[in-house]
Specification:
CATH class: Mainly Beta
GO molecular function, one term: FMN binding
Shape: globular
Number of domains: 1
Protein name: Flavin reductase family protein
Order of helices and strands: HEEEEEHEHEEEEEEH
CATH topology: Pnp Oxidase, Chain A
Helix content: 10-25%
Radius of gyration: 17 Å
Strand order of the largest sheet: 3-2-6-9-10-5-4
Organism: Amycolatopsis iheyensis
Distance between the termini: 57 Å
Number of helices: 4
CATH superfamily: Electron Transport, Fmn-binding Protein, Chain A
CATH architecture: Roll
Keywords: Oxidoreductase
Strand content: 35-45%
Length: 173
């Protein structure tokens, strides 16, 4: 088996554009996570990975539930706050409320509440599969992370959107 240098692997993976999320669980507890993806439509499943030493991982394993706050453009400050050890993550400047029994950030671009479906060992991380029990979203450009920099999809605001009359007509069918 060929071994790849960890520093070079990290440098290459830094070029992969990743969503920026804050994963939360009751307590409240939360942390910034970029290893999040949708996994299945039927049943609706998502996945998120945590370092085995993560304090949040321990809380999620204990409660069996977690929420994923999908951050939007301009929420870099929240991402940094929830990534900083010892920070007061849910105090002062963080607007949040409880939704479906989990902490939800008020201005997040999207929200997914999950029951822990299964845990898979994956090297120095654990991969959690969450069964989606509730969700919501707003029309905000997503916050993404690549090359150790926050940004957003460059043409998100320019994408074509159907007229509201088209949407109403589609609902009436």
């Amino acid at each position: 088996m060929t071994t790849v240098d960890g520093t070079r692997f990290r440098a290459v993976m830094a070029a992969v554009c990743a969503p920026v999320t804050i994963v939360t669980t009751a307590g409240p507890h939360g942390a910034t996570v970029s290893s999040f993806t949708s996994l299945s439509l039927d049943p609706p499943l998502v996945s998120v990975a945590f370092d085995r030493r993560s304090a949040l991982l321990a809380e999620i394993l204990d409660t069996g539930r977690f929420g994923v706050n999908l951050l939007g453009q301009g929420q870099d400050d929240l991402a940094v706050r929830f990534a900083t050890r010892g920070a007061d993550r849910f105090g002062g400047e963080t607007a949040w409320f409880t939704d479906d029994g989990l902490p939800r950030l008020r201005d997040a671009a999207g929200w997914v509440a999950c029951d822990l479906d299964r845990v898979v060992e994956a090297g120095d991380h654990l991969l959690l599969f969450g069964l989606v029990t509730a969700l919501g979203r707003t029309e905000l450009p997503p916050l993404v992370y690549a090359h150790r920099t926050f940004g957003t999809h460059s043409r998100y605001a320019e994408r074509p959107r159907p007229l509201i009359t088209d949407q109403i007509a589609a609902c009436a069918r």
